[in-house]
Amino acid sequence: MRVLALVGKSGTGKSHKAQQVARQNGARFIIDDGLLIHENRVLAGYSAKRESTRLGAIKRAIFYDPAHATEVKSKLSEMKVESLLILGTSDSMISAICKALAIPLPETIIRIEDVSTPQEINTARMIRKSKGKHVIPVPTLEIKKDFSGFFLDPLRIFRKQKGQPAKIVEEKSVVRPTYSYMGRYTINDGTISQIALHAASQVPGIKPGGRVYIENYTSGVVLKLELAVLYGTFLPQVLQQVQEKVSQVIEYMTGLNVLKVNIVVKSVYFN
Q: In three state form, how does the secondary structure of 77-124 look?
């Protein structure tokens, strides 16, 4: 296995540069913060950014948990990985990851200063310090279920050639981990219910009000709405619109991953 490493202090923009560095050096797989990534997909692992403490995040990133390490080692073997880029904050961290995963030490170590300008590094540090934001080098849809309730935003990089439409060349996600100094936040079920009912009432044919039942899971929430519908409404079309509207608004306003929206028509009303 050919192993390379990208090393830089925390918050200097390693994850932002990961796909570019991997592509330029022929590395088809990436190890970053506890995840094994291949072509915009998470193949195995558990993100360190989901840990509730910095110490827990460090342990997760170096595969301190034997079960975590075994899962990733098995996937590396299954995929017959020939080239791998490992991200780390120091040479010793890279060595610890290689030891935990039983892979060779890197033949080449690339420093973040080699691939980023001082201005880019300073900007990355400012964003980390002022906003507590981290980058994960995979599309948001790929990790959405694992980061329900987090502030999660897509980051797309486009490239445009003359006479051709712009194409997405890289997709990343920006997340604020729970161990960020900015603190944790929680959302009361009552607030979610009010948002869901308000969103539903925006669909023509749905009467304001109703009841909402919420089931909370690690990967997201399941909502059950009991609503009143205008007499004569074509239910399949309107209820589908409600499902889409409620899911969209809840995810946008709260960051929660909406697994399912179930609707029960409890009554019919007349204008």
A: HHCCCCEEEEEECCHHHHHHHHHHHCCCCCCEEEEHHHHCCHHHHHHH
Beta strand ranges found along the chain (DSSP E): 2-7, 29-32, 35-38, 41-45, 83-88, 108-111, 134-136, 152-159, 167-175, 211-217, 220-230, 258-269
Task: Tokens for 201, please give them.
Answer: 């009432």
* pLDDT in 10s for each residue of the chain, 271 residues: 999 999 999 999 999 999 999 999 999 999 999 999 998 889 999 999 888 788 999 999 999 999 999 999 999 999 999 999 999 999 999 999 999 999 999 999 999 999 999 999 998 888 777 767 777 787 776 667 777 666 566 666 556 666 777 665 567 777 766 555 445 556 778 888 999 999 999 999 999 999 999 998 877 889 999 999 999 999 999 999 999 999 999 988 877 889 999 999 999 999 8
- Give dist(CA 17, CA 87) in Å, integer: 10
Q: Rounded to 5, what percent of the chain is helix, strand, coil?
A: 40, 30, 30
112-121: long-range contacts, CB 8 A cutoff, minimum separation 24: 112/6, 112/7, 112/8, 112/9, 112/12, 112/13, 112/14, 112/17, 113/8, 115/6, 115/17, 115/20, 115/21, 116/8, 116/12, 116/13, 116/17, 120/13, 121/8, 121/12, 121/13
For the chain, domains (ranges, CATH) are 2-175 (3.40.50), 189-269 (3.30.70.1350)
Please enumerate in sequence order all residues whose Cβ is within 8 A of that of 93, keeping only pairs 6 or more positions apart, or say none. 61, 62
